[in-house]
């Protein structure tokens, strides 16, 4: 039958798959700091869900005036969860991998924030609803194409 087993048209299938994965046998690291090792992905997931509060829908439930700033804060806090997960495993290789991921994420966040800062300067507002209103005239992707080319060239080795 496929994914149509749980719920209407299989809509609840991902949730029950997650419950199944969490209920499977866990392997415990002997030297790891247990709480921080297992709670850092949960904190990262909560931070990523908090970003969805900012999404401007058609009927606009929440109009958050500092939405872009909140987006920057949530994405930059997500870096710490990767670093804490690498540190709490008490393995040098995990720590080095976590620090490498942190450095790479920060380098991408700097260029992303500069591109979004140029959009903020265009509309002079931090509200994401106004981003949506201004893009009804012309999409910012066309205005930011030269910046996108600079961002892509910075990704190359």
UniProtKB/TrEMBL annotation:
GO terms for molecular function: NADH dehydrogenase (ubiquinone) activity; NADH dehydrogenase activity. It catalyses: a ubiquinone + NADH + 5 H(+)(in) = a ubiquinol + NAD(+) + 4 H(+)(out). It is found in: Mitochondrion inner membrane. Keywords: Membrane, Mitochondrion, Mitochondrion inner membrane, NAD, Transmembrane, Transmembrane helix, Transport, Ubiquinone. The keyword Lyase does not apply. One of its GO terms (cellular component) is mitochondrial inner membrane. InterPro entries: NADH_UbQ_OxRdtase_su1/FPO, NADH_UbQ_OxRdtase_su1_CS. The chain crosses the membrane at residues 37-59, 66-86, 106-124, 136-154. The keyword Nucleotide-binding does not apply. Its main location: mitochondrion. It is a multi-pass membrane protein. One of its GO terms (biological process) is aerobic respiration. It is an enzyme of class 7 (translocase). Its EC number is 7.1.1.2. Belongs to the complex I subunit 1 family. Core subunit of the mitochondrial membrane respiratory chain NADH dehydrogenase (Complex I) that is believed to belong to the minimal assembly required for catalysis. Complex I functions in the transfer of electrons from NADH to the respiratory chain. The immediate electron acceptor for the enzyme is believed to be ubiquinone. This is NADH-ubiquinone oxidoreductase chain 1. It comes from Eurema laeta.
């Amino acid at each position: 039958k496929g994914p149509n087993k749980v719920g209407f048209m299989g809509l609840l299938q991902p949730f029950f798959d997650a419950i199944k994965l969490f209920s499977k046998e866990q392997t415990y690291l002997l030297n790891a700091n247990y709480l921080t090792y297992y709670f850092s992905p949960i904190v990262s997931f909560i931070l990523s869900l908090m970003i969805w509060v900012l999404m401007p829908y058609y009927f606009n439930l929440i109009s958050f005036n500092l939405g872009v700033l909140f987006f920057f804060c949530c994405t930059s806090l997500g870096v710490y969860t990767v670093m804490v997960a690498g540190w709490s495993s008490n393995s040098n290789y995990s720590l080095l991998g976590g620090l490498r991921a942190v450095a790479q994420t920060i380098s991408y966040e700097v260029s992303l924030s500069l591109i979004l800062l140029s959009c903020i300067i265009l509309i002079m507002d931090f509200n994401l609803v106004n981003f949506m209103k201004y893009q009804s005239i012309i999409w910012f992707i066309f205005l930011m194409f030269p910046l996108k080319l600079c961002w892509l060239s910075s990704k190359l080795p």
